[in-house]
Amino acid sequence: MVVIKENKDDLIHEIGINYYSKLSDFAGIIGYSIEEENNEVKLEFNPDRPDLFSFYALKSNMKIFYDGNYRIKPLFEKSDKLIRVDNSVKSERPYVMSFVARGKPLGNYYSHIIDYQEKLHETIGKSRKKMAIGIHDLDNISPPFLFTMRDKKTLEFTTYDNFHGTAREILEKHDKGKQYRQLISSDTMVPVILDSKEDVMSMPPIINGLKSKIGNNTSKLFFDITGTDYNAVLSAFYLFAYEMSYIGYEVLIPDADRNTINYDWRKVEITHKEITKLMGLEPDNTVILLRKMGYRCEVTSGGYRVDVPGNRIDVMGPVDIIEDIAKAYGYGRIPARPLKTSGTGVPYTPNEDENIIKGILTSINYQEVRSFILNSEDFYRKTGYSGDVIITNPKSLEYSVIRDKLYPGIISLLAINKRRKLPLKIFEIGQVVVSGNQESHLCVLYNNSKAAYSDIYAVLEYLLARTINAGAKVLQGNYNEIISGRGGDIVYENTTLGIIGEMDPSILVDFGIQNPVAFMEINLDKLRNIIEK
């Protein structure tokens, strides 16, 4: 999720009370959440609408939707300011785009575009790995510009925050260098953008130079977008270009890359049949609805030809456009219809068996719980781990192996619920992996001040009587988790179904549980085979 927030008074000043009052209504159309707390307004978006990740973009789109301020003319002029790309840099960061924005001095917009730049770095750019943006004061640099490679030992410049040194020293000592130096693959060379006087504008994706540093008085800005992923660079290019136009700047883009230019107002054909199939109907005012959502549109013999603005990077085809038609029309206005199916479903047998077992256990006041499928290897140190499924690159060591048994997870739930009134009678049905094989298990656990083997054995007898109409033997076994002589293997006709017994106190101490626990864990796949026979 992406969050944008602003002080309420400042927001009203920026977008006006009229559009501020429409934020909640527009949220119901677009699909974002809005909160207001301590005079701060916070909007939370799904990642599918990056073109709206600022209040200026929201205001522009609300103007279109509510005021009929449709987009007719192109937003951008042509620019002769472009970056020449040397072949040497194509193996490092092969994709480069640029544009110019000019208008009044930045003033309060300065902090906004810096924040917006970082938002794009983190979302579209994946922390600058796929894409990085440089912003420069065009009045302080001399075009034409060159994107090339230079030796990190000999290239020397001053960064925007007055750190002077070679490129190597910047990478090793500057905070930005240490943070992003792994994004440069070459051991000896660094990518660099130079102006015609050989002054360093930036060392993508690390840091900008001092000469081109922007400030509150900057009125002509040059943007470079470099990266390793073409789609990320293209997306950032249009998102930022549109953002600058939203805050009132004239945007000029070079005419050198026809693919880039043609992405703005790209054409998508949609048919009447497609709209009816997805929405269930076709609104009479489809053209108006499309224009209200920021598209250009004209009627064709079979449907509509829709022009998609460049910053709508979420639009990949007709389905996305038809979704916007439905949003503008209002989902609540679309009549409900019964779904047509190709056949009649039948119950999934294993689920039906599990539901029967759940009914049996709940009838004797046992409550179903769910525990984590992933845990740490250390979690199983007392009982031993035999799942043989270890995650090689886990987000956390606490979730690095797939469970091979259920009862450790349920014991951890007891530890969380120590203050609950006794007795605690709980069970879980879930999947485990034993020696690389997936199995379905049932674990039943009884926790009370005088919990004993007889308590859980009574549950076992009742369960087997209701499922296979028979009893089972318990053969004494040696398990670290069971008190010696107080449990063992559950056996039915030479098939070992699971284990049963009183939990060893040392395990309970590890989890901070003071009262005794009796439990059993059964392989439901084996029990199901017996039932089928």
From TrEMBL:
<dbReference type="InterPro" id="IPR041616">
    <property type="entry name" value="PheRS_beta_core"/>
</dbReference>
<dbReference type="InterPro" id="IPR045864">
    <property type="entry name" value="aa-tRNA-synth_II/BPL/LPL"/>
</dbReference>
<keyword id="KW-0963">Cytoplasm</keyword>
<keyword id="KW-0030">Aminoacyl-tRNA synthetase</keyword>
<comment type="similarity">
    <text>Belongs to the phenylalanyl-tRNA synthetase beta subunit family. Type 2 subfamily.</text>
</comment>
<dbReference type="Pfam" id="PF17759">
    <property type="entry name" value="tRNA_synthFbeta"/>
</dbReference>
<keyword id="KW-0460">Magnesium</keyword>
<dbReference type="InterPro" id="IPR005147">
    <property type="entry name" value="tRNA_synthase_B5-dom"/>
</dbReference>
<dbReference type="InterPro" id="IPR020825">
    <property type="entry name" value="Phe-tRNA_synthase-like_B3/B4"/>
</dbReference>
<dbReference type="GO" id="GO:0005524">
    <property type="term" value="F:ATP binding"/>
</dbReference>
<dbReference type="GO" id="GO:0004826">
    <property type="term" value="F:phenylalanine-tRNA ligase activity"/>
</dbReference>
<dbReference type="GO" id="GO:0006432">
    <property type="term" value="P:phenylalanyl-tRNA aminoacylation"/>
</dbReference>
<keyword id="KW-0479">Metal-binding</keyword>
<protein>
    <recommendedName>
        <fullName>phenylalanine--tRNA ligase</fullName>
        <ecNumber>6.1.1.20</ecNumber>
    </recommendedName>
</protein>
<dbReference type="InterPro" id="IPR005146">
    <property type="entry name" value="B3/B4_tRNA-bd"/>
</dbReference>
<keyword id="KW-0067">ATP-binding</keyword>
<dbReference type="GO" id="GO:0000287">
    <property type="term" value="F:magnesium ion binding"/>
</dbReference>
<dbReference type="GO" id="GO:0009328">
    <property type="term" value="C:phenylalanine-tRNA ligase complex"/>
</dbReference>
<dbReference type="InterPro" id="IPR009061">
    <property type="entry name" value="DNA-bd_dom_put_sf"/>
</dbReference>
<keyword id="KW-0436">Ligase</keyword>
<dbReference type="InterPro" id="IPR004531">
    <property type="entry name" value="Phe-tRNA-synth_IIc_bsu_arc_euk"/>
</dbReference>
<dbReference type="GO" id="GO:0003723">
    <property type="term" value="F:RNA binding"/>
</dbReference>
<keyword id="KW-0648">Protein biosynthesis</keyword>
<dbReference type="Pfam" id="PF03484">
    <property type="entry name" value="B5"/>
</dbReference>
<dbReference type="InterPro" id="IPR045060">
    <property type="entry name" value="Phe-tRNA-ligase_IIc_bsu"/>
</dbReference>
<keyword id="KW-0547">Nucleotide-binding</keyword>
<feature type="domain" description="B5">
    <location>
        <begin position="263"/>
        <end position="336"/>
    </location>
</feature>
